[in-house]
Write a structure and sequence with these properties.
Distance between the termini: 47 Å
CATH class of the largest domain: Alpha Beta
Number of strands: 11
Strand order of the largest sheet: 5-6-7-3-8-9
Number of helices: 9
Number of domains: 2
Length: 255
């Protein structure tokens, strides 16, 4: 791939905590317009790698190249909100930084959270919260989106909708996306390349090739081989409930 499109490169990355090796000799590149998904079991070092990529942690060895001046949007694994904190979704999004107010309407429409803008942040559903977090990461028009478990706490139908949204964001903006997931099952159709991590890179490549790799099979077992594809004749809301079928939608436009 053209090096002019290179956003991020990790070379010979090693991280140790208290004498324990968390990451060892990790290599990874990511280019504009590409979705790369990190998968691996709990404790494999996925979040540690994300922290190093973001510059929040220094490795014991190795180098991280980030395109100079690159804007990065980050969606953390979870957000804890004080239940008595008086903050609306709108206010939370505007806290993303200077200059984001002008992009608020566009991003809110793209992500589909306009109906909760004035709701207290603590009162929205899990699916809505994930979309709000994604909107916040998008507000500064990032060239690289880093998404740590973006579908956490969302049911299977909601997960499919979120992965589809993430793919559309890549297609529309041409940004690179680094995504963390525990499970390759649903994310398969929404990623270009997979890096299977278990303190080191066990295997990497297209989703189809990774599922056939012995290292992947050793980690996840034979029950996780199939690539998930889901074709249906209806749409889901943020909670995963069926809201309409395509014929109904077409009828609404024509009428």
């Amino acid at each position: 791939m053209d090096d002019a499109l290179l956003l991020l490169s990790v070379h010979d990355l090693t991280v140790r905590f208290d004498g324990r090796t968390v990451l060892e000799c990790v290599e990874m590149d990511l280019h504009a317009g590409e979705i790369v998904t990190l998968i691996g079991p709990n404790g494999a070092g996925k979040t540690t790698l994300v922290r190093v990529v973001l510059g929040l942690m220094q490795p014991d060895r190795g180098k991280v190249y980030r395109r100079p001046g690159m804007r990065i949007g980050y969606m953390p694994q979870r957000l804890r909100v004080d239940p008595v904190l008086p903050i609306t979704v709108r206010r939370f999004l505007l806290l993303a930084g200077r200059g984001v107010a002008g992009r608020l309407s566009e991003v809110v429409e793209e992500v589909g959270v306009g109906h909760v803008l004035d709701a207290p942040l603590q009162h929205i559903s899990g699916g809505e919260m994930q979309r709000v977090m994604l909107a916040r990461a998008l507000l500064r028009a990032p060239e690289l989106l880093v998404l740590d478990e973006p579908v956490q706490g969302v049911d299977v139908n909601g997960q499919e909708e979120l992965y589809g949204l993430i793919s559309r964001i890549r297609d529309r903006h041409g940004c690179g996306i680094l995504m963390v997931s525990h499970d390759l099952h649903l994310v398969m159709a929404s990623t270009d390349r997979v890096v299977c991590l278990n303190h080191h890179v066990c295997c990497s490549g297209s989703p189809e090739s990774v599922t056939q790799h012995p290292a992947y099979r050793d980690l996840f077992g034979s029950s996780r081989f199939a690539i998930y594809t889901h074709h249906h004749d209806h749409l889901h809301d943020l909670h995963g409930d069926v809201v309409r079928r395509p014929a109904e939608k077409r009828g609404g436009r024509d009428g």
